[in-house]
Amino acid sequence: MSLFKPTIALRKVTDITPEILRMLGTDAILLDVDNTLAPPDSKIPYEGVQEWIDSTKACGIHIVICSNNYRKRIKPFSDSVGLDCVAMSLKPFPFGFNRAKRKLREKPQSVLVVGDQIYTDVLGANLAGMKSILLLPRSEEHGWTIWLRRKMEKNKRKKIKLYGEDEK
Ligand SMILES: [Mg+2]
Hints:
Elements: E1 8-10, H1 18-23, E2 28-31, H2 49-58, E3 62-66, H3 71-81, E4 84-86, H4 95-104, E5 111-115, H5 118-128, E6 131-135, H6 144-158
């Protein structure tokens, strides 16, 4: 399997249902923040995100935020939505995922990584033996590193169909 291929792809985080989590055998989720839960550097989550976090936790799923962004950005956001966090996780390298996994005490096969980038979230999950859900980026981004990663993703994304929208 390609290291750049997610287990499935969806439009947005709130499209992740308890049925999908059951299908993937998920006990725990490692969640990206920027462009996944909220616009980059925004304190306000996208619509429905807080409700999704609360209802997913109520299903018995453990959630830890795992972001490459700085602690001063990630910690206040995580506190405000009621989640534990690992900042500066250096995705796609395994350090942050391993730190989060130790917090969770889960086997990698039952951990699901959710994020909007192939070269950090999806590649990192595949290298760690975890499942992944790739989301569509939702907000405009700035900076040359993200511009480059989006350019590199472009052809790979074309081959990835959104789950449940195959017949289009
Ligand atoms: Mg992101």
